[in-house]
Amino acid sequence: MATIGFVGLGQMGGAMSRNLMRAGHQLEVFDIAEDAVAALVADGARGAASPAAVAKGKEIVFTMLPIGKIVEEAVFGPNGIAETIAEGSIVVDMSTILPTETKRIGERLKAQGVGMVDAPVGRTSAHAVTGTSTFMVGGEPADIERVRPLLMAMGEMVTICGPLGTGAAMKLVNNYISAVVNLATAEGLAMGLKAGLELPVMAEVLSHTPAGRGHITTTWPEKALKDEPSPAFMLDLASKDLSLALDMAAALQVTLATGAVGKQLYASAQANGHGRSDWTTGMFRTLKKMGGVASR
Ligand code: NAD
Hints:
Blueprint: E1 4-7, H1 11-22, E2 27-30, H2 34-42, E3 46-47, H3 51-55, E4 60-63, H4 68-76, H5 81-84, E5 90-93, H6 99-111, E6 115-118, E7 121-122, H7 125-130, E8 133-138, H8 141-154, E9 155-162, H9 166-194, H10 199-206, H11 210-213, H12 235-252, H13 257-271, H14 279-290
Parallel strand pairs: 1-2, 1-4, 2-3, 4-5, 5-6, 8-9
Antiparallel strand pairs: 7-8
The structure holds nicotinamide-adenine-dinucleotide.
């Protein structure tokens, strides 16, 4: 099997590169942290002195770095990947960065005949260790098929999102929702504690409701995902319940900042005639209109 290049051996990259080796691949690796390289070398990888050295003679080079500027430096900076990588090779960036950064890097690589695939990672570093990561992937279909077996050696699901940059865009959609739901969960549970509820009780209840399980697999499939306005639960009622929660928070003197902003958006949805629609479809239609998003 051809040797694979890997740049960035942190929490994620260290674990993922070990999974590639476990699947029988030879790796040449680089990280600015010498101890990270030494740990991989102890496990059987070849250590390199720079990204350029990693990329020399490799058909596929992975990057797993903190931010876009560092990915750009590792590719195009002094002793970067672009200095040595051969025409027809592929750079696979798995870092979480902006789609505009991904596309800029991809266009420059394309100009020298090198492909790029963006494959940001769903799930956590614990899944990276167990080889159960998920990937949201953008790029040319032929390039994606070339790297798919390697991604599957590090994870268990590859979702093709579209052209280069769509993996990065999907990752930010995912992480935006995740960050806001985490925040709303913290706000809600803090209010619950002050109202006298026990954490295990709240956890049990929420484990069986859309609030705890997430909307995309519960309330959305039959309604918002189909643009179906007939209500399973009316937006007017959701808005009323949000007001009740805000009233309770005011009485308890706890903060529901996300809900306070959300209340304004529910009011906007109602003002635009969505009060009697399903709450998911009504809110989705409202936000698409506000953002000038064409309905699909
Ligand atoms: P990390 O900080 O543990 O690892 C980053 C590695 O990059 C470090 O080992 C660091 O020394 C190295 N590095 C920094 N600059 C470098 C350079 N110029 N050249 C070579 N190596 C360099 O971070 P992480 O948790 O592995 O995350 C990596 C990326 O994956 C981030 O974009 C992160 O947002 C994303 N991500 C992380 C998780 C997670 O659970 N940790 C999950 C999904 C996605």
